[in-house]
Write a structure and sequence with these properties.
The chain is about 20% helix and about 40% strand. The chain is built from one helix and five strands; from the N terminus they run E-E-E-E-E-H.
Length: about 60
């Protein structure tokens, strides 16, 4: 199943094996992996909580 990550990137969620919220030098980003390879990353977030909320909305996870 393909989902739109941003204006130029679509992800095949059935191939994503790992999703990681990561603190990098330019901010907090969500990284998407197929096995050991990073295949995409999200926009920057100000906090881990904002990134987590965005990811839940993106994946349509209900609490």
């Amino acid at each position: 199943m393909f989902v739109k990550l941003n204006d130029r990137v679509y992800l095949n969620l059935s191939r994503i094996t790992r999703i990681k919220i990561d603190q990098v030098e330019d901010g907090i980003r969500i990284r998407f992996y197929e096995g050991q390879d990073q295949v995409a990353k999200s926009q920057k977030f100000a906090s881990i909580e904002e990134a987590d909320q965005w990811l839940e909305k993106f994946l349509k996870i209900e609490k």
